[in-house]
Amino acid sequence: MTLRELQGDGAEALDRAIELAARLIALANHVVALVGAGLSAESGVPTFRGPDGLWTKHGEPDLRDYERFVEDPKRWWEMRQERASRFAELAQALDTAVPNAGHFALRDLEEMGRLQHIITQNIDNLHQIAGSQAITEIHGNRTKLRCVSCNHRWPLEGFEIKEFPPKCPECRSGIVKGDTVMFGEPIPRDALDECINQSRMCDCMLLIGTSAVVYPAAGFPVDVRSSGGALIEVNPNETPLTELCDVVIRAPSGEALPLVVAKLRTA
Fold first, then answer.
1. Predicted model pTM
2. Catalytic hit among 103, 117, 127, 139
3. Which residues are 147's β-sheet partners?
4. Distance of CA 69 to the CA centre of its chain
5. What are the boundaries of each domain within the chain?
6. Are 126 and 43 in contact (CB under 8 A)?
7. Bridge-partner residues for 247, per DSSP?
8. Mind listing the pLDDT tens digit for each residue in 29-66?
């Protein structure tokens, strides 16, 4: 009988799932959290997909965005300034968002030595604000800039832009862009390599608020499962990876993760 079958249905399902999740985490040697937009949504950051998603309201982004950047980076920077108002709703939400209980629970798990790494698909910097340290941002960070040649990163605030496009002050040959990954842009090699490395070491992965439809991130849990690792899904909604999971916690991460932390503290 699998752990998912042991969970059952009814009022006790959540408590049982929390207990089983804590047990798997306690037995694991290298726990990695794969985090998606659901965690940020609990902090008021709007999602892109769905009935109230930004893309639903404003239309899909330009799928040739990165291609256009490569073709004419100067014009891309100019257009970036012109388009700023299009996603004012997202920018305002990101500027005012604060970490929620789920973010702080991940920090607690790291400080307890129970969580070794976070792979996040979110760009909002909320993990860092919450105090987590071991983080790979597979889609970049909105508060940073990055050289497309050497992958060196800087805080956006304080970076002096004297010309469009700005040149890399480190390698002197690369062009600087926002750290967030655009459509058509390859995942930065250093970030992708770290995700692959963490997935190889992982024997228990937490799938937190991810729709599991965006690759390559959605492939990491499959790799963990294929190598014999356990999967714990924390999500109010079913995902394409639900059937692969050993434990499914049908609750928001801000509700479920503090309960997991509490269970581990008393174990």
1. 0.90
2. 139
3. 176
4. 24
5. 1-45+98-140+186-267
6. yes
7. 232
8. 999 999 999 999 999 887 655 545 444 444 555 667 89
Strand partners, 207: 34, 233
In sequence order, the 6+-apart residues with CB closer than 8 A to the CB of 227 are 200
Predicted confidence at residue 93, as pLDDT, reads 66
**For the domain bounded by 1-45+98-140+186-267, which CATH number is listed?**
3.40.50.1220
Q: Is 139 a catalytic residue?
A: yes
Q: What is the 8-class DSSP label of residue 168?
A: P
Taking phi over 0 as left and psi of -120 to 50 as alpha, with beta for the rest, 50 belongs to: left
Contact 185, 151 (CB under 8 A): no
Strands 176-178 and 144-147: antiparallel
Residue recorded with tokens 């937009």: 37
Tokens of 146: 């990055």
- Continuous H helices in the chain: 3-7, 13-27, 37-41, 54-58, 65-71, 73-82, 88-96, 101-111, 126-130, 189-201, 219-226, 253-265
**Strand, coil or helix: 262:** helix
Burial of residue 237 (CB within 10 Å: 0-12, 13-18, 19+) is exposed
Question: Can you tell me the distance from the alpha carbon of 198 to that of 186, in angstroms, rounded to the nearest whole number?
Answer: 19
